[in-house]
Amino acid sequence: MLKNIQATRVITISAALLCAAAVTIWTPGKQAMAQTASSDPAANNAAKMLLDGRQTFRFDTFGDEAFWGDGLKLHQAIEGARLGGVGPGVSPKTALSVGLKIDVDAVPADLASQLKDGAVNLDDPATTLALLKLNAVIGVTGFFNGSSNNLRSIGIQCAICHSTVDNSFSAPGIPPGNVGHRLDGWPNRDLNVGAIIALAPDLTPVTTVLGVDQATVLKVVNAWGPGKFDAELFLDGKGFRPDGKSAATLIPPAFGMAGVNLHTWTGWGSVTHWNAFVATLEMHGKGRFWDPRLNDAVQFPIAAKNGFGNLNPTLSPDDDRIMSKLAALHFYQLALPAPESPLKHESFTKAPERGDKLFSGKAKCNSCHVEPLWTEPGWNMHTAAEVCVDDFQANRAPDKRYRTAPLGGLFAHMKGGFYHDGRFATLNEVVDHYNSCMNLGLTGDEKNDLIAYLLTL
Ligand code: HEC
Ligand code: HEC
User: Fold this and answer.
1) DSSP conformation letters of 326-380
2) Fewer CB in a 10 Å sphere around the end CB: N or C, the chain?
């Protein structure tokens, strides 16, 4: 089905874009489309929702600067003592080393050419402040005192974890893949959230909720490593698995999600359920949240103690900074397509075609990763035993199962490995795992064909 899917995808996207933006270029259907944009309330609404949702995904902190800035005082760590904060400060070099990305479209032309000339000091926190002022650090917003260069606070957005940049810009001291055009929905597998939290001058907001001391928090977050975060830590307080490894999971892609029923590695709920969850309980934005499953004090002791199952019940709608944005955010998330693999059309061999047949034949992958959603139509959940792995992470979610991960755009998140915790470093390991778990009897050639196909998804 390789070619068919491709053709439909291109047509659907360009039609949506044309209609949505009501761009007037000549196409056979131009008139019909112009009419649609003006008189079809659904098309008009779609265009507005897309733009509103993108704005929220990229730029909205939901008021979470109260946590990341006012609480953790991360803005002071960024400034450094010399500029009025504390510690050595965060230079652009340090920022890039913890995986933060720079949006080249927010960098003015003169600054871009100075960067190319190596004329910008990448060791000076003042440069980081300038980039923040330009709104060029993806997923991070600096709040400044008036027009001064003094940071008052700092907040984060969805984009910090769920966006990265392409390879379009490189300069001395800036390797490709750090500064470029935004890629919304691509997981940032370089981002070291734990290292960023560890920079915080004041960890009290975290130690209070978890009921542990600062050293314990540092031990936990420093064990996460790049591309990972632990969304369940604030619910159950489990920093490590029984085998002693970090309990964090990989940041998953936030593209290719339309049609997929349950979301997150462990199928917590719909996209919009999780958006509300993350915006309140993880980012610490200001809003209501309702999920009585979190009142289970055995499974979620921290959440139950802190009343996360019914968060901010008396918050006035006027003071809720999240609720009114959920609809458009949901819409935008569903609109993000899985990116097309560069290998899709460059099949030098027949391997991907043979792999395609194996996928829905002998290798039985299609029994769970159903083409073209790459997950089940319906309740897309499995026990740990069904996929021959331990149930530690499954048991940290209400259904105690793993969700069949959608595979569209797989090539875009190879870094950090596969499965919820990246336990399989390569696709070879993934295929070997299924081969033994499900007694598939795949030959070496067949495994290679299957992998060649996976790389085209
Ligand atoms: C600090 C990093 C971080 C931030 C910020 C963040 N996420 Fe996530 N996101 C994750 C991780 C990690 C998971 C996996 C959670 C799990 O399975 O337990 C996830 C899962 C998801 C999923 C499920 C994807 C799938 O495969 O089904 C969606 C959708 C999502 N996030 C959207 C958002 C939105 C929208 C925002 C902003 C409101 C956001 N995230 C903010 C790290 C983050
Ligand atoms: C019984 C259902 C089932 C079958 C059959 C199955 N998978 Fe999976 N697959 C899953 C689940 C569940 C996950 C998520 C596991 C996790 O989160 O740890 C997954 C994850 C994956 C991932 C990792 C995705 C990511 O984002 O890290 C790949 C790759 C994959 N499967 C490929 C395959 C291939 C290839 C086959 C056939 C050989 C196959 N799967 C057969 C259920 C299945």
Assistant:
1) HHHHHHHHHH-PPPPPTTSS---SSHHHHHHHHHHTTT-GGGTS-TTTTS-SS--
2) N
